[in-house]
Specification:
The protein has 263 residues and is of the alpha+beta class. The chain folds into two domains: 84 residues, 434 Repressor (Amino-terminal Domain), CATH 1.10.260; 157 residues, Umud Fragment, subunit A. It is built from eleven helices and nine strands. It has a nine-stranded mixed sheet with strand order 2-1-3-4-9-5-6-7-8. A hairpin with a 3-residue loop joins strand 5 and strand 6. Helix 2 packs across helix 3. It starts with a helix and ends with a helix.
Length: 263
């Protein structure tokens, strides 16, 4: 049933096998084998497919799409809301201590590129180093991500940013600093403006005004982590005047972006 569901889902969204296989980093024959039930996709791959279509894993595995009528398909195409709210099945693999306390995994720089494919793989997560930060809430899930570049001062290149897992993306306030894990751009640390209700996107901005704001569709988002603190071997050197100027330029750029992209 999974294979036929994948085929019907692809056709309903007017996608070709080439479109889907390229998005998933597969060759066409491999993906075709999944649709024709020659092979079974892994849970990690199923998760990525569901992320792409903005549907829950539960929906793909438990329903027979061949029985769907126009009303069912219309409801499914609006399922991004369920995914964004975290009410569907969203896999979060984590490590726990001997006392069953959740540990804070640290994503090394060398593992950063593989995170978008390994985030739901217990074997990948199990190999990550862990740290303890006792001042963080034990009732929240945290993870530490490496940051590169100069787009988010005072957080400098080589720092590690600690994020708190956000289940309901629709509840994120505007101008929230977040680590966003995307299928297209991997792990990014940005200031998030929540435009899900308006156009199913997040507008991402940098504190360094040199960088232009850009939008990501909810279908590209895998995880969102709210900024909680960062770890750096360097003292911040960003002056107050620079912060104020950068904030002003950022506000102008965001306004220009909205005007240019207003439909």
């Amino acid at each position: 049933m999974i294979g036929n569901n994948l085929k019907l889902l692809r056709k309903q969204f007017s996608k070709s096998q080439d479109d889907i296989s390229k998005k998933l980093g597969l060759n066409r024959s491999t993906y075709s084998g999944y649709e024709n039930a020659v092979a079974q996709p892994s849970l990690e791959l199923i998760t990525r497919i569901c992320d792409y279509y903005n549907i829950s894993v539960d929906t793909l595995l438990r329903n027979d799409f061949s029985t769907y009528d126009d009303k069912n398909w219309k409801s499914l195409q609006g399922a991004w809301k369920q995914n964004a709210k975290g009410t569907g099945l969203r896999i979060l693999t984590s490590q726990v201590s001997d006392n069953n306390d959740e540990l804070i995994e640290m994503i090394p720089a060398k593992a950063k590129a593989g995170y978008t494919s390994g985030y739901a793989d217990p074997e990948f997560i199990k190999e990550l180093p862990t740290i303890r930060l006792p001042f963080l809430s034990k009732n929240r899930k945290h993870r530490t991500f490496p940051i590169s570049g100069d787009s988010m001062p005072p957080v400098s290149d080589g720092s590690f940013v600690v994020g708190e897992f956000i289940e309901d993306w629709t509840s994120i306030p505007n101008d929230t600093a977040c680590i966003i894990v995307t299928s297209e751009n991997g792990i990014v640390f940005k200031i998030l403006e929540n435009n899900l209700k308006e156009n199913k996107t997040f507008l991402l901005s940098s504190t360094n005004s040199f960088y232009e704001p850009y939008a990501v569709g909810v279908n590209e988002v895998i995880e969102v982590w709210r900024f909680r603190c960062y770890i750096s071997m360097e003292l911040p050197s960003f002056a107050l005047e620079e912060v104020q100027i950068s904030d002003s330029l950022l506000a102008i750029k965001k306004s220009l972006y909205r005007i240019e992209n207003k439909s």
